[in-house]
Please model this.
Amino acid sequence: MQPTQILKSTKQFSLSEFKVAAGFPNPSEDCLSEPISLDNLLITRPSSSFLFRVTGNSMLPEIADGAIIVVDKSLNAVTGKIVLATIDNEFVVKRLKLDYDNKRAIFLSSNPEYDPIVIEFDDDNTWESSVIWGVVTSAINIF
Model:
């Protein structure tokens, strides 16, 4: 899997000042704020950010099959973050849980149908740099 090249957008979109209810419609009038750039909204560190398309359903409902994720290589992977990792020479997107007491990293799927992946580590190895590729900062789910 290769990251998708990030091209600077020339488009700006208007963002409504009103929050949209997920239940009943909001009867507000067209009231738009300043235009926003999706580049600036989704990618805070362009030099260390990469785009990947996700395949599979292990991270449902947060990240759907076909979603595009933004991955930042400059961020530290900590418990609770969704990461892009290389396990058995394959890229996987999982939520990281660090278990320092038992010296292991646990990669969890959001979908309960998938088992956790456990990686053992010791004080001398470099599992973080060899397993963790980057931290997922956002996902664009396409319906």
The chain has a mean pLDDT of 83. The chain has two helices and nine strands.
